[in-house]
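Project standup — Tuesday

K.O.: blocked on the structure for the chain from last sprint. Re-posting the sequence here as requested.
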Amino acid sequence: MAAAQLTSAASSISTKGFTSFEGLRASQSVKISSFSPVRTFRPLVVKAATTVAPKYTSLKPLGDRLLVKIKTAEEKTTGGILLPTVAQSKPQGGEVVAVGEGRTVGKNKVDISVQTGAQVVYSKYAGTEVEFNGTNHLILKEDDIVGILESGDIKDLKPLNDRVLIKVAVAEEKTAGGLYLTDASKEKPSIGTVIAAGPGPLDEEGNRKSLSVAPGNTVLYSKYAGNDFKGSDGSEYIALRASDVMAVLS
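H.V.: unblocked you, prediction finished:
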């Protein structure tokens, strides 16, 4: 049991003037009782994905939904540097492993335009994550699919429905007065060139409506819309809905 000596040498407070307190003496020992151990709690771990029990061997999406096997997050940078888990970006792509039967629009039956085996890019926060057969998957609506990736480079993305792929203009290096800008002070451009466009959205009868923009157009788009990507050559790209394009520049 710990003990502390309260002595006149150690104390900066004189006992003079406290003679009416009989209990306060310079040579008195003050004993401190030991503290009870601090109780520790096991951290709460929350799993975002819904786990499908092993007894279920098949998962069939319904309607216009798809089952996508999520691509593994990159563990290294392009320069070969290992990334910690917190720095690994959340994947936005994967392989379609199952599709639903489609949906009815008006009087027409519309099949899903994506086939199993296709490599797709999807909206960042879309879908429901499930762990099936020990692997993470997403159940998505077809409208959540941004496009089909026909190669390992985002510039070859084939947009679906009303999506467009835009190559972002290079940020200005100087101010109007000729001062060089640092990377941190460069404003993110909202201008770019349309590289590819989807076939258009469906109308109430299930027919495709043409988009108001086409490949080759230089456009001004909403600053906070879409999904950002970086190509293999270091160029910046963004995939967004045609409705997020505000103007065509010429």
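K.O.: great, moving the ticket to review. Residues 1-27, 82-89 have pLDDT under 50 and may be disordered. DSSP finds no helices and 18 strands in the chain.
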